[in-house]
UniProtKB/TrEMBL annotation:
SUPFAM superfamilies: Periplasmic binding protein-like II (SSF53850). Belongs to the bacterial solute-binding protein 5 family. It comes from Rhizobium tropici. It is found in: Periplasm. This is ABC transporter substrate-binding protein. GO terms for cellular component: ATP-binding cassette (ABC) transporter complex; outer membrane-bounded periplasmic space. InterPro entries: Peptide/Ni-bd, SBP_5, SBP_5_dom. It comes from the Bacteria. Residues 91-444 form the Solute-binding protein family domain. GO terms for molecular function: peptide transmembrane transporter activity.
Length: 535
C-alpha cells in the first residue's frame, strides 16, 4: 500500500512517505547496518527468502499500517500486550507480564524483565513511557500523532513508577484500552536509540530499534527489506539467520522463482494459481481467510455519485457470491456486513446479508436521474490477491444494469488521489483488535483517509463513534455499531464489502511454518523451523 494503507488504517502522516522516498532511496548506502547477531562464519542457520508483492516504505508502526506493513513489523517489534491470533484474539501478556486497574482510568503494568532491544539495551519503564509520550505520539507535531488519533485517543499520559512498572492514565473509562495496547501500533522502541538518531525521521523509520525477533539490516526502495536475527529476543533465538523480503510484483514471477528455488516462500497467490504450486512435489500451499474485508470506497462528492441512490444501486448490482464461487473457487466467503466474528459480543450475528438485486439497482438509477455518466473504479494491479479479476467482474455487473463503468489502474499510493474522475476504488478493512471501534470507526471517521482526502464524511457517523468509544456495556456498543453499519453501508454509502480476504502462500517443503490467520507473519522462535537443521 506507497503506504496509503489499503488495509484500512491509513492516516494523513503517510503523505510524507512519498515525499521521503527519494531521500530514503539511498539509505543502505549511508546508514550503517546493525551488527550481526552472530559471526557469519560460525552461524550455520539457513536464510529465509520470501517473494512479496510489495514492501512497506517504513518499518515504523506509527508511520505505516497496511497489509504489507503488518507482515513485516510483526518480526521487528513487540507490543505492550498481544492478541491470541491462533485462538480467540483475546488479550494476553507480552512486554507487560501482568496488569491491574488501580481505578477506572489508571492501569498499572508490570513489565517483563530481561527484554533486550536490537541495540543491546534492556527495556525499562522509561522506554515504555517514551514510546507513548509526546515526542513520538501525543503531540500534534509528533510523527505518530495521526496514529494517536486513530488508536490511542483515550490515552492521557504514561507514568513511570519504577524501572519495571508503568501506569497508563486514560481520559475516561475506556472499555477497550487493553485491546489498544495489543494493537499493531502499541510497540515499545528504544528511547536511547531514538535520541542517538538525533531526530532524523527518514533514517529512523527505515531502521527503528525495537525488540522483535529480527532487526532491520537494510532497506532498498522498490527492492527488498533484509532482516537479521535478533538472538537476544525474549521469545528465543530465531531459526533463520536472515530473512529477505524481496519485491516480485508479478504473481507468475513469484511462483516461477519459488519453483526454481530462488525463494523459499511466495506470498499472496491467487486461487487460480495454487494448483501450479501443488503440482510440484517440493512445494505446498498454506494459508486461508484473514480478518480483512475487501471493500470499495465511494466518493460522494463525485457528481455522478452525489445522490445516495446511485451508490445504493452500485451496491445492489454486485453478485458477491458469484465472485467468491468463481474467482475465489469458494476459498473465502461473503460476510454479513463490514464486520468480523472476532468482535465477540459486539458482532452482529443477525445483521442482514448483502442483497443482489439488479432490478432494484436499475430502478434506483432511474429514480436518481442517472444519465450514463462515467463511473471510474480504481484498481491497483493485484496489490490485493485477485484484485484485477474481481474488479473486472464488478465492472461487468455494473455495466449489466446500465452503468457506464470503467476500470482504471493506479499505483497504490495514488488510490485516493484527487481528480475529476475519482469515483470508487479498491481498498480493504482489517479487524486488528476484537472490537469495531479501532477496526471500523477510526478508519472511516473524520480522522481517516476518506475524510482527509475529501471522499466521504458524515457528521452523524462521527457522533455515533464518539458514543461508542465510551460505551462500556457490550450491548450498548453493539447497538451503536448497528446504526453505524446501516449508515455507512446503505443510508449514505461510503463503502461496501466485496468479500472477506484470504492470503495464500507457496512454501518449499522442509520449511515448517504455518501462517497466522492474519496478515502478520510470525517468523520468530517456535513458529519457524527448517528440517535440515534437525539432526
Amino acid at each position: 500500500m506507497s503506504d496509503y494503507l489499503p488495509s484500512g488504517f491509513n492516516s494523513p502522516v503517510t503523505r510524507r512517505i512519498t515525499l521521503l522516498m527519494g531521500a530514503a532511496a539511498g539509505l543502505s548506502a549511508f546508514v550503517p547496518a546493525l551488527s550481526a547477531s552472530a559471526d557469519e562464519s560460525t552461524d550455520k542457520r539457513p536464510e529465509l527468502r520470501i517473494a512479496v508483492q510489495m514492501n512497506p516504505v517504513s518499518q515504523e508502526p506509527v508511520d505505516a499500517a497496511s497489509n504489507v506493513a503488518f507482515r513485516n513489523n510483526f518480526s521487528i517489534h513487540e507490543t505492550v500486550l498481544a492478541l491470541d491470533m491462533r485462538g480467540d484474539f483475546s488479550v494476553k501478556p507480552n512486554l507487560a507480564k501482568s496488569w491491574t486497574w488501580i481505578s477506572p482510568t489508571v492501569l498499572e503494568m508490570k513489565l517483563r524483565p530481561g527484554v533486550i532491544f536490537h541495540d543491546g539495551r534492556e527495556m525499562t519503564a522509561d522506554d515504555v513511557a517514551f514510546s507513548f509520550g509526546p515526542e513520538r505520539l501525543l503531540n500534534k507535531d509528533a510523527p505518530g500523532y495521526p496514529t494517536y488519533r486513530t488508536n490511542f485517543t483515550s490515552l492521557d499520559h504514561v507514568e513511570v513508577v519504577d524501572s519495571l512498572t508503568v501506569r497508563f492514565v486514560t481520559k475516561f473509562q475506556d472499555p477497550i484500552f487493553l485491546q489498544r495496547l495489543a494493537s499493531y501500533a502499541a510497540v515499545v522502541i528504544s528511547k536511547d536509540a531514538w535520541q542517538k538518531n538525533g531526530g532524523n525521521w527518514t533514517t529512523w523509520r527505515q531502521k527503528p530499534v525495537g525488540a522483535g525477533p529480527y532487526k532491520v539490516e537494510s532497506y532498498t526502495v522498490n527492492e527488498s527489506v533484509v532482516l537479521a536475527a535478533h538472538d537476544q529476543a525474549y521469545r528465543g533465538k530465531p531459526a533463520a539467520k536472515r530473512v529477505t523480503l524481496r519485491i516480485v510484483p508479478e504473481v507468475s514471477s513469484r511462483i516461477a522463482g519459488l519453483l526454481a528455488g530462488d525463494y523459499d516462500i511466495a506470498t499472496d497467490l491467487p486461487p487460480d494459481q495454487l494448483s501450479v504450486v501443488t503440482a510440484s512435489t517440493d512445494h505446498e500451499i498454506v494459508g486461508g481467510p484473514v480478518p480483512n474485508n475487501r471493500i470499495l470506497f465511494f466518493d460522494k462528492n463525485n457528481p455522478a455519485l452525489k445522490d445516495p441512490r446511485v451508490r445504493q444501486a452500485l451496491i445492489l448490482a454486485i453478485d458477491r457470491q458469484a465472485i467468491v464461487d468463481t474467482i475465489w473457487n469458494g476459498r473465502t466467503r461473503v460476510p454479513n456486513g463490514l464486520q468480523f466474528e472476532l468482535y465477540g459480543p459486539v458482532y452482529l450475528k443477525d445483521y442482514p446479508a448483502y442483497k443482489y438485486d439488479p432490478d432494484q439497482a436499475m430502478q434506483l438509477l432511474k429514480d436518481a436521474g442517472y444519465n450514463g455518466e462515467e463511473i471510474e473504479i480504481r484498481s491497483q494491479n493485484n496489490y490485493y490477491t485477485a484484485e484485477n479479476p474481481v474488479t473486472q467482474a464488478v465492472v461487468a455487473m455494473w455495466q449489466a444494469v446500465g452503468v457506464n463503468a470503467k476500470m482504471k489502474f493506479v499505483e497504490s499510493g495514488k488510490l485516493f488521489e484527487a481528480s475529476p474522475t475519482r469515483a470508487t476504488g479498491n481498498w480493504s478493512s482489517t479487524g486488528q483488535v476484537p472490537d469495531p471501534y479501532i477496526s471500523f470507526f477510526t478508519q472511516f471517521s473524520s480522522a481517516g483517509n476518506l475524510s482527509s482526502f475529501k471522499i466521504w464524511q458524515n457528521a452523524d457517523f462521527d457522533a455515533l463513534g464518539a458514543k461508542m468509544e465510551q460505551a462500556v456495556d457490550p450491548a450498548d456498543r453493539a447497538k451503536i455499531f448497528r446504526d453505524m453499519l446501516h449508515l455507512i453501508e446503505w443510508e449514505d454509502p461510503g463503502v461496501t464489502v466485496l468479500h472477506q480476504n484470504a492470503v495464500f502462500f507457496g512454501i518449499r517443503k522442509g520449511i515448517k511454518w504455518q501462517p497466522l490467520p492474519a496478515f502478520q507473519m510470525d517468523l520468530g522462535a517456535g513458529s519457524l523451523a527448517f528440517e535440515e537443521q534437525k539432526s
